[in-house]
Automatic annotation (TrEMBL), chain A:
Pfam families referenced in this protein's UniProt entry, alphabetically: GST_C_2, GST_N_2
Gene Ontology CC terms: cytoplasm
Transferase found in the keyword field: yes
Source domain of life: Eukaryota
Keywords from the UniProt entry: Oxidoreductase, Transferase
Protein name: Glutathione-S-transferase
GST N-terminal domain: residues covered: 27-105
The GST C-terminal domain, residue ranges: 111-231
PANTHER family: GLUTATHIONE S-TRANSFERASE OMEGA, PTHR43968
SUPFAM superfamilies reported in the protein's UniProt record: GST C-terminal domain-like (SSF47616), Thioredoxin-like (SSF52833)
GO molecular function, one term: glutathione transferase activity
InterPro entries per UniProt: Glutathione-S-Trfase_C-like (IPR010987), Glutathione-S-Trfase_C_sf (IPR036282), Glutathione_S-Trfase (IPR040079), Glutathione_S-Trfase_N (IPR004045), GST_omega (IPR005442), GST_Omega/HSP26 (IPR050983), Thioredoxin-like_sf (IPR036249)
Automatic annotation (TrEMBL), chain B:
Domain GST N-terminal: from-to ranges: 27-105
Protein keywords: Oxidoreductase, Transferase
PROSITE patterns for the chain: GST_CTER (PS50405), GST_NTER (PS50404)
Name used for this protein in its record: Glutathione-S-transferase
Classification via Pfam families: GST_C_2, GST_N_2
Domain GST C-terminal, first and last residues per copy: 112-232
InterPro entries noted in UniProt: Glutathione-S-Trfase_C-like, Glutathione-S-Trfase_C_sf, Glutathione_S-Trfase, Glutathione_S-Trfase_N, GST_omega, GST_Omega/HSP26, Thioredoxin-like_sf
Record's GO cellular component terms: cytoplasm
A molecular function (GO) term: glutathione transferase activity
């Protein structure tokens, strides 16, 4: 039986489709992406922000294509092939782009302490914001949803209080913003179905979220919203079979 | 009511005590540690390998003293104060040591961007797949859960073992990949004695690599006397431990 999650719209649409069309020439970096994947988005945003040339290849992580498994044995996006060497894990790729392309706009501070501090907040997003957000989407019982809603809002508020503005670190748009963006622009799902609101977070979160959504790289990597709906519905019914959905159900770490 | 985990032996012993004694002078870098904590040991080994001057301060993470909570609101070790500013998270600290002390060798990550990324990939795998399965194995009470967790642990370790170039993970260069594995390797006697694990089950090369790693001087220098760990791991084996890691495993949540 084929995985129903594999039945997602096969290509990027809207602004993202234009961007994909502009990145079909062979380049040193081949970027394997799922247009709908929030983790692949991190790498896509980093590539765009840094202006690094890349060749975009659509790869549905649910298909587990044999050729792709040679690149990433986990069969997950994002992945890149750089000068023949494969790399995966969204944050590992983002750090690689910082190291390998030092003359492009940096997404992490140069100062070692500030850099460590940024990494601490990236870690916070991954450990304290995304898991309750995902659990909130996938939990079916109202009392469990209530717990996760509170946890999500509290974690976002902790971040909100640290935002220097206009971006998390201040003037420099960084990887901290990038790891947040894919969930912030999906927060309409928990607003519509789980009682979330940006206003409930307070401390300037709403304004920050709106700034993130308007960032050029974010707008350019967006597909039409209607193609996401089918995906969200499966997560909302806790029927999604992605690695993320399963990890959430099993209480395991993920990315 | 105080939690039982507070009653652990209060100070490092054995080789670790000697190391602690050598690091009592005030320094720009203050290292807040729990002598028994495997996450602390990652950063501690890194400091020792790199010869970075540090002042060692023992902290009981279950008895959260006010000054320490100001350093790390999570109240967890390891943490540092460097030139008066605080930092925590074992892997963030290890990366910081690489960035902030470029003149202090060993360099524990390759300089080449792709090789560096490759090392980080495996550090990530160890943290996400090896450590949680070993923790689950230690805390599992039910025979089926133990069997499952043992299978997962061996499988994860075999995946790592297959990548070891020898003598160290990356080959001739001792690196953070070895550093993040070491604390769990030196504790694997717990799952050998109580959960049916053997290094041989992972592979013959693994057994050799593990033996090599646990005899590395920086690893030995951060180990306390074995008997003092027993009080701690007995609680984990009965799934009565109250650390954040233990609670996360019980709740089916990602590790802090």
């Amino acid at each position: 039986m084929s995985n129903p999650d594999a039945d997602v719209h096969p290509v990027a649409t809207g602004p993202a489709a234009e961007l994909v069309a502009q990145h079909q020439e062979p380049q040193d970096i081949v970027f394997y992406c799922g247009w709908f994947c929030p983790y692949a988005a991190r790498t896509w945003l980093a590539l765009e922000e840094k202006g690094i040339p890349y060749q975009y290849k659509e790869e549905n992580p649910f298909h587990k294509d044999k050729e792709f498994l040679k690149i990433n044995p986990k069969g997950l996006v994002p992945a890149i092939v750089y000068k023949g060497r494969a790399l995966y894990e969204s944050l590992v790729i983002c750090e690689f782009l910082e190291d390998a392309f030092p003359s492009t706009p940096p997404l992490l501070p140069k100062d070692p302490f500030e850099r460590a501090h940024a990494r601490l907040w990236i870690d916070y997003v991954c450990k304290s914001v995304i898991p309750p957000f995902q659990r909130l989407v996938q939990m079916q019982e109202p009392d469990k949803q209530r717990v996760e809603l509170e946890a999500t809002i509290n974690a976002m508020r902790t971040l909100a209080e640290k935002i220097k503005g206009p971006w998390f670190l201040g003037e420099q748009f960084s990887l901290v913003d990038i790891v947040l963006v894919p969930w912030v622009i999906r927060d309409h799902v928990i607003a519509q179905y789980r009682g979330y609101s940006r206003e409930a977070v307070g401390a300037g979160w709403k304004e920050y979220a709106e700034r993130l959504a308007k960032r050029e790289s974010v707008v350019k990597t967006q597909s039409f919203e209607e193609h996401n709906t089918k995906i969200y519905r499966r997560y909302l019914r806790d029927e999604a079979q992605s690695g993320l959905a399963k990890a959430i159900r099993a209480g395991l770490p993920y990315m | 009511m105080s939690i039982p985990d507070e009653k652990i032996h209060p100070v490092a012993t054995g080789r670790a005590a000697e190391t602690v004694a050598k690091h009592q002078e005030p320094q720009e870098l203050v290292f807040y540690a729990g002598w028994f904590c495997p996450y602390v040991q990652r950063s501690w080994i890194a400091l020792e390998e790199k010869g970075i001057p540090y002042q060692y301060k023992e902290v009981n993470p279950y008895k959260k003293e006010k000054h320490f909570l100001e350093i790390n609101p999570k109240g967890l070790v390891p943490a540092i104060e460097y030139k008066g500013k605080a930092l925590y998270e074992s892997l963030v600290l290890c990366e910081f040591f690489e960035d902030a002390f470029p003149a202090h060798t060993l360099h524990l990550l390759p300089q080449d961007p792709l090789e560096r990324a490759y090392a980080r990939l495996w550090i990530d795998f160890i943290s996400k797949s090896v450590v949680p399965s070993v923790q689950r194995l230690i805390q599992a009470q039910d025979a089926n859960k133990q069997r499952e967790a043992l299978e997962d642990s061996v499988k994860a370790l075999r995946t790592v073992a297959a990548q070891v170039k020898g003598p160290w993970f990356l080959g001739t260069q001792f690196s953070l990949v070895d550093v993040v594995l070491a604390p769990w390797i030196v504790r694997d006697y717990i799952i050998t004695e109580h959960r049916g694990y053997t290094r041989e089950a992972v592979g013959a090369d693994w057994k050799e690599y593990a033996a090599r790693l646990e005899n590395r001087d920086s690893v030995l220098a951060t180990q306390s006397d074995k008997e003092h760990y027993a009080e701690i791991y007995q609680r984990y084996l009965r799934d009565e431990a109250m650390s954040e890691v233990a609670k996360a495993i019980r709740a089916g949540r990602p590790l802090p």
